Every structure is written in structure tokens, then in C-alpha cells.
Amino acid sequence: MIYYNRDIKSTRIWKLEHDIQTEESRHELEFIRHFSQLVEWHFATKHTVAEYADILNITAKALNKN
To answer: 35, 37, 49, 63: which has the fewest C-beta neighbours closer than 10 Å?
Structure first.
């Protein structure tokens, strides 16, 4: 599941890097990069969306929307 999500995030990053037009898309790109980095650091110990959302100081629902 994490690999699938990482592939989706990687695809989003690529798309955003090649079509950055707004401040919002730049912010989203930075958020995705930060989230991906957190997954790389914590994948062995953190397994739920809620755990990553807590690290990011947002709700799990908000993280699922990103």
C-alpha cells in the first residue's frame, strides 16, 4: 500500500515540476516532497495516515485530500 501511495505521490511531483503555474501548486509540491521524505524516514515504524497526519500537524482527512 505504501509503495502504491508513493508511486502516486511521485507522479504528482513529476506533473507539478513540469507544470508549475501557481503559488498553490508550488505549495502542494513542497508539501508532497515533505510528506514523501517523512515516509522514507518513518515507513518502518509508522503505518497509518493518522500517524503521518499527526507529524504534519494536520488531520488524517486533510492528508487524504492531498
So the answer is: 37
Amino acid present at 37: Q
Domain membership of residue 36 as a residue range: 2-65
What gap in Å lies between CA 66 and CA 62, rounded to an integer? 7
pLDDT in tens, 27-44: 888 888 999 999 999 989
Q: How far lies 57's CA from each of 30, 60, 61, in Å?
A: 15, 9, 12
Contacts of 47 (CB under 8 A, 6+ apart): 2
Q: What is the spatial distance between Cα 48 and Cα 43, in angstroms, rounded to a whole number? A: 10
